[in-house]
Amino acid sequence: MIPQVSVVVPVYKEEVNIRPFLARVEAVMDRVGKPYEIIFALDPSPDRSEEVIVSEINRNSYIKLLLFSRRFGQPAATMAGILSCSGHTCVVIDVDLQDPPELIELMYNKLVEGNEVVYARRRSRKGETIIKRTIAHLGYWMINHLSDVAIPRNTGDFRIMSRRVIEELRRLNENHGFLRGLVAYVGFKQTFIEYDRDERFGGRGNYNRFTGSLKIGLNGLISFSSRPLFVMSIVGFVIAGLSFLLGGWYAFQRLFGADLTPGLPTTVLVISFFAGVQLLGLGLIGEYVGRIYDEVKRRPLYIIDRQVNFGQQE
What we know:
50% of the residues lie in helices and 17% in strands.
């Protein structure tokens, strides 16, 4: 029987959350009343995550497992699950229960009303620091002012998509899988629901809250716009103009014997500022060149070591 709903769950070091997650998701899917599959996309974990999932597969034949050859990261694991699912619709959700599985029923109902994507927008974020929320706010502000694609604010990967969107994602074939940006790029009719995000059910998160958020923000910005390069060109033009004016003022004082502005030619602050802007520009160019390098190599986004319960040879 072909599933109507596929639930894709990226996993890494989450053994304490898997069974509580399944208890809530299975209850929701029973209420939805449609054939379903739950696909765990597992980066090899040092804990018992794989054992727990396999034992749950023996209990419930609707559960499946993708195990990767090494750790490829959550974005790659998520895309692997999406591209391996067979359902007419696909839900992406984390296993830590910060995103309530009970919303899946509401999202599914909104999808069948004629939408192609229903994403969950966070109204509040429990357990997140002011610094984390500030970084997220600034990141979305920059992305939506500089990007060529409007990415909804206060969203994560928690969403439901139609098969039409899944097949369009398959065609994109990008190495930097920023899902919320890719789905926004695909377009079609999209809507949202709002919710209050909970704290993790158990365990600790597997990425640094500061550098992880910064990396996601840069990925969203650089993958969907070249405008930062244009902005840096404008900044360089303005600074060059100011430097020319500053040099002209200094030459004027030299020619007419006026008192030189103390420390004008060698002000450490000015030099440091110019050097910082140059390094920022080089770093930005490096980010774009690095992405070009990754795309040109055409390496696979992920490598699957084993598939469990997919009806294929393991």
